[in-house]
Amino acid sequence: MASNSKTLTFEEVAKHNHKKDCWIIVHGKVYDITPFLDDHPGGDEVLLTATEKDATVDFEDVGHSDSAIEMMEKYFIGKVDTSTLPAKVNHSLPPPTQAHGVGNQSSGFVVKILQFLLPLLILGLAFALQYYGKKKHASTS
Asked: What is the pLDDT of residues 50-72, one digit of tens each?
């Protein structure tokens, strides 16, 4: 890695987002991974979807080996100006909202009743079958 690395804006890096010219951002560093696309074990599509954003989370989620991390250094071309990165978008689902009304409460009540009654019904059925089996066995003897 060169000690006098250049600083690139997010907009500059985002322009390089196709198979013939592919740059990604990981941990604030910019990598030109174009020559590596065909060699990537996960395929080139995975890398192409990591363009036009900070791919640090995507990179960390996979759990790359130490040798893969070392290999990245030969593709390093500079650092990204972090002030030009877009605001993080929260892709998680919003918290569930409670529906107002009796319908939601009554369905919860029915589930609780079934959780209580169903095991009792199964137990009762087991005792009935055992009793019926003993009675039938006694009458045949």
From this structure: 999 999 999 999 888 899 899 99
